[in-house]
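dumping the sequnces here before i forget
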Amino acid sequence: MHALIPLPVILPLLCAAVLAAVNQLAPRWATDAMGLACALAVLVLCAVLAAHASHRLVYWFGGFHVRHGVAVGIAFSVDRIGAGMATLVALMVSAALLYSVRYFDEVGSLFGALMLVFLAGMVGFCLTGDLFDLFVFFEVMSVAGYALVGYKIEEAGPLQGAINFAITNSVGSFAMLTGIALLYGRTGALNMAQIGAALATHPADGLVTVALLLIMVGLLVKAAIVPWHFWLADAHAVAPVPACVLFSGVMVELALYGLARVYWSVLSASLAAHTADLRAVLIALGLLTALIGAVMCCAQRHIKRLLAFSTISHSGMFLVGLGLLTPAGLAASGEYVIEHAMLKGALFMAAGILLHRFRTVDEHELRGRGRGGDPGLRVAAAVFVLGGLGLAALPPLGVFFGKSALDGALTPVPGYGWVVGVLVVGSALSAGAILRVAGRVFGGWGERVPRHHEVLSAVSELPETLSPHDRTPAVMVAPPLILLIGGLVVGLFSGLRAAIAAAAAQMADRASYVAAVLGGHAHAIPAPHTPVVTLDFLLAAATVLGAVALAVWALAAPAVWWPLERVQGVATAGIVVLRRLHSGCVNDYIAWLVAGLAVAGAALALA
Amino acid sequence: MSALAYGTAGWLFLVGLYGIVTSRNLIHMVICLTVVQSSTYVLLLSIGYRSGAAAPVFADIPPGSRAVDPIVQALTLTDVVVEATVVALMLALAVQAHKRFGTLDPNELTPLRG
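..and the predicted 3d for all of it:
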């Protein structure tokens, strides 16, 4: 069993090296099959690890061991949340690789090699128990991500998207490394359990707070939290669809996982006195992100960019759950992440079907072109309608159980009950935008707005296939269908929900983490239990009705009752200003990054 | 000594960020990124520095003598490898931008806006 632990990282790296070596030599089907087989093997390995991780699995590389309670060497410490996230990552990579078999017209296996390196980085990030390794795996997945965005390097959009992504995320990861260096300077340790044990004896001082700030900002840049989110929409608009599936479905969420890991395994004991302040900062950032992402989502006409802003909005909601700093909040976010990953993956793949067929993902140019037709378009239509409703938490499908767990985690924390109302608004706005796309593209409803509209953005779309196709290959139809069905029904399995709650309790239990890695005994803390209550159904109904009403209103464009005209005018002006801030200019993004760092630092310092 | 080293690390971080924010040239921007990263080298090495200690090569010094922390040196080396990867990729993007579009100004590429 123990020998299996490093395999999910080693195997994809080896396969990627082979694929890169035989690029152009081996036939396309062979390299595709090898990449897919490797991803599926990692999926099985991670699932086995997740099933056995009810007691933490600790693997020491190179035969190093703990001596007298001091960790020497590098360890993987696998718990259920880590192995579970790794399983989700492997599942999404497998689906994306299957989808990309027929997606690209040109040959070559470098895309598969990059995807496998990306997979190895993400799985390593989930499993490692070493803070510096956390940074190294973070960089491995980042660099693979930059290359994936810039895969179509001969075009201007992907170049600009990759540059914005790479510069912004690199600055974030250097901030994170600085924070890690400060913690090493304080404790002389890199093993997370060891640092946690060393810090637990004293309350956090200025140095630890600065380290927390730098690590947090580094991870939140990757998690696309406002005001560090600008790169995400640029990268998604131009990245190949199979890469978008992974960026939106798992990469962004992994950064939040990293934050939870660092908080619970390393800092929770020394920050115990400041929990309320940190909670206020994280929830404020999450809510701001949920709302700005949702508003920007409604203001898009480029479907991939629209979905990217929906991801930003949802990332904010995950941060709200995580930011509660309770096991119940962690469990809610974990559940929500699984449901969202599958639905968002399916939506991006459906957008890819449109791009493959019509060489455009402009909502207005596609008006009515998705009507009728063959299975490919019908699946795409189903994904947009059901995916939109699923993201609006239509009971009992889609994100309903994750959302109700989040509501249930928020209500017991004093002073944060009102947050559920904001989440309803955010979800309704972004889901309404997706339903609007469904109505316009597949129903032919609504008017066709010319380009360069002041509210709706017009990014030039970048065809990823050489010419339009008149049919969609079956391997491009099956993955979105499977992910859609999976995403809609996964929440219904009460066994999975119980497992996630137990996993969250395990992750939040710092004492037993230290005991498992360094030796010793600790009592496990009980799993949170948040039953679904009537309020959850009411909130979900409000979200779904709001989303549908918004979509109908956007498509029907009724004459506005005169007192509302003023409100509409102000709202439009606000959206125009917000859109101008998303300037596409990397200089501005770094300026926002620094400003956000300063404001978050001031908030933590004053608290 | 240590105040100077930590001050240098902080200054490199900030001056590199200033360079990135004001840069209008991709090559210049990538070099500014390496300046930001250099601050992490200085920081790591100064954390492991012990005054009057030898290099951590125990082949030719007696066991038990003072040596600087070898771990931060390994970390710095890893950091250098990471930087080499990122910089190589970014410079490849810059070369491509110049070759295809005749510009190194990141804002002259097709704008992704709004």
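Residues 70-101 of chain B form the longest helix (32 residues).
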